[in-house]
Amino acid sequence: MLTVAALYHFAPLPDPAALRAPLLALCEAEGVRGTIILAPEGVNGTIAGPRAGVDAVLAHLRGWPGCAGLAWKESAAAAMPFGRMKVRVKREIVTMGEPQVDPTAHVGRHVPPAEWNALIADPEVVVIDTRNAYEIAIGSFRGAIDPGTRSFREFPAWWRANADRFAGKRVAMFCTGGIRCEKSTSFLIGEGVPEVFHLQGGVLKYLEEVAEGDSLWDGACFVFDQRVSLTHGLAPGGHILCHACRRPLDPADRDRPEYEEGVCCHLCAGEYNDADRARFRERQRQVARGELFADQPAAR
């Protein structure tokens, strides 16, 4: 079994570009794959590899100034869930587009999984899923509000358009691993919401620690690797990914007439032109021949 580690940490990285090459070299030397994003505000990513290799990368990250407190959530995979190792430098480690938001200054109150059910059962608490619509489509907490956002960047506008609906309520928020809630709860505090809560460790930690019989979670949790989804006990959820539109599909969706592996599904049947489909078919042929990883884009 391989170790999968989902990690993030907000801390000032004055020159993230200078950190990229040594980190990438270490990951490749240790047989670790996945994606790590570096930005002036910190580090975010998911990696997989042998136990010793993952430990070496985590130790390297925690050795950076201000990153000693970096935490991560682990799961296991029978096969490597990533095709390659990518280390990218961006403006934000999770893109919200609100430069005044600073999770190192203030965030919502962290609520451990064992206390989450009691919180969200309170009728005076509004529960908001901060993930994107395609993630929510395969699973969420019962009664949670779906903002219908296609990307996290859309969340601030959604909140400002709907804030009056939640006046006087306490707000509980959750996401896959916790990082989006660091920003969304900080944002709400800046917008004047007095009581904001955050599921500590995100959905993944909840599914790991809360027994299915006690759970208020329905469905599976989308993850950003080739496992596609996880469910209670962090067991595989059985979903696949459409490599055209990157949306998760139930196993039964492969029987739909619109489905063509690597090329099309019922969700994106009307979204691409013939030239796009030709590129997708060529990519799928390259994947089948072992010349390309499934998570690599088709050449333009």
**Major sheet details:** 5 strands, mixed
Shape: globular
Q: What is the domain tally?
A: 3
Beta percentage is 15-25%
Count all strands and give the number. Answer: 16
Task: Please write the CATH class name of the largest domain.
Answer: Alpha Beta
Q: Mean pLDDT, nearest integer?
A: 94
H-E string: EHEEHEEEHEHEHEHEHEEEEEEH
- CATH-derived topology of the largest domain: Oxidized Rhodanese, domain 1
Fraction of residues in helix: 25-40%
Unreliable residue runs: none
Query: What is the fourth-level CATH superfamily of the largest domain?
Result: Rhodanese-like domain
Number of helices: 8
Distance between the termini: 36 Å
CATH architecture descriptor text of the largest domain: 3-Layer(aba) Sandwich
Given helix and strand content, the structural type is: alpha/beta
- How much is the radius of gyration in Å? 20 Å
Function: Catalyzes oxygen-dependent 5-hydroxyuridine (ho5U) modification at position 34 in tRNAs.
Protein name: tRNA uridine(34) hydroxylase
Family: Belongs to the TrhO family.
GO molecular function, one term: oxidoreductase activity, acting on paired donors, with incorporation or reduction of molecular oxygen
